[in-house]
Write a structure and sequence with these properties.
The chain is of the alpha/beta class. Helix content is 41%, strand content 14%. The model has no long low-confidence stretch (mean pLDDT 95).
Length: 259
């Protein structure tokens, strides 16, 4: 008899930031695994392209991650389309590299608003719906997955806003997991190592910084977006029914590297 602990067939999922990079890889993996998916993104052209790529019954909507009304509309759209929302994966994020002494308050707050405030807004709006859904056999009503970072654990130069926001994500995960466990809502995160995406490619590809990051990765290469999908699939699957408040690091050994 086949083990079905990772079966997410017909589960309803909202993937925020799901039209590019890590979010898109996750969205496509969920579809391939039998889930029903709505993707959210700020870019209308990417939303239209993703709608076409996914096809029915899946969908894509335009949304702004830190805007409460926009997030609420995306959540409501998912519930209206599929009847409930079993999981949300928030992969939306921005990065700005600059020496900390030169970072404007505007740029710092912009990054924190997207990466940290947006993570809270998405989680809160989804949880407001999940708490009233019928529970499964384990008493669970939903799963939330955020995206942390290497900078949640170690310092990287000249990305202070990003580091502050991603460290804050760990606090959100632990705090919300503790508070919402009684509601049947699990909250976890993945923390990618160095994965070339649209937001960091200029910083790491063919640069001195990229060379240093590669040296610091014991597996001697950068990650591929699809290599994060297994961790996400686990966290939203029945196999993770007793897992909450945790962060799974997928980094090719980066955090183990000594001097």
């Amino acid at each position: 008899m086949a083990y079905n602990g990772f079966d997410i067939t017909n589960k309803s999922c909202l993937v925020v930031g799901g039209t590019s990079g890590i979010g898109k890889a996750v969205a496509l993996a969920l579809v391939e695994s039998g889930a029903r998916v709505v993707v959210g993104s700020t870019n209308p052209d990417k939303v239209a392209a993703m709608q076409k790529e996914l096809g029915a019954p899946h969908d894509a909507v335009q949304m702004e991650v830190a805007d409460e009304a926009s997030v609420r509309r995306a959540v409501d759209h998912t519930v209206k389309k599929f009847g409930r929302i079993d999981s949300v994966i928030n992969a939306a994020g921005i990065l700005h590299r600059q020496a900390s002494l030169d970072v404007s308050l505007h740029d710092f707050e912009r990054i924190v608003k997207t990466n940290l405030t947006g993570s809270f807004v998405v989680a809160r709006e989804v949880a407001r719906v999940m708490k009233d859904q019928s529970p499964d056999a384990q008493g669970l009503r939903g799963s939330i997955v955020m995206v942390a970072s290497l900078t949640s654990f170690v310092s990287l130069n000249e990305v202070i806003g990003y580091a502050a926001s991603k460290t804050g994500v760990l606090g959100l995960v632990r705090g919300l997991a503790n508070e919402w466990a009684k509601l049947g809502i699990r909250v976890n995160a993945i923390a990618p190592g160095v994965f070339p995406t649209d937001i960091n490619r200029k910083v790491i590809e063919g640069t001195e910084r990229g060379t240093r990051l590669l040296w610091h990765t014991p597996m001697n290469r950068f990650g591929r977006a699809e290599e994060l999908c297994g961790a996400v699939l686990y966290l939203i699957s029945p196999s993770a029914s007793f897992t909450t408040g945790e962060t799974i690091v997928v980094d090719g050994g980066f955090l183990t590297k000594g001097v």
